[in-house]
Amino acid sequence: xxxxxxxxxxxxxxxxxxxxxxxxxxxxxxxxxxxxxxxxxxxxxxxxxxxxxxxxxxxxxxxxxxxxxxxxxxxxxxxxxxxxxxxxxx
Length: 90
Known about the structure:
It is built from one helix and eight strands, in the order αββββββββ. It has one helix at about 5-10, and strands at about 15-20, 25-30, 35-45, 45-50, 55, 60-65, 70-75, 80-90. It has a four-stranded antiparallel sheet, with helices on one face. The protein has a four-stranded antiparallel sheet with strand order 2-7-4-5, with no helix packed on it. A hairpin with a 2-residue loop joins β4 and β5 (about 55). The radius of gyration is 12 Å and the shape is globular. The chain starts with a helix and ends with a strand.
């Protein structure tokens, strides 16, 4: 998927769009969010652990999590730059 297609899917599905940066080496222990989330990686890498399985995402990759999904995040050796889609569940 490319950036334009990702952004169009967010708009179609009622997500707000944000561009974010997480610093290299950031580690976020198990947590959840009160909103549905979709990510599109612009640069860097992040490893997300969900349901005991770790997956590393790099440039051009996408992933999504429903509100309440408990997961952990670990950013690689470069800053992680990404597009974040957020859809409130209320």
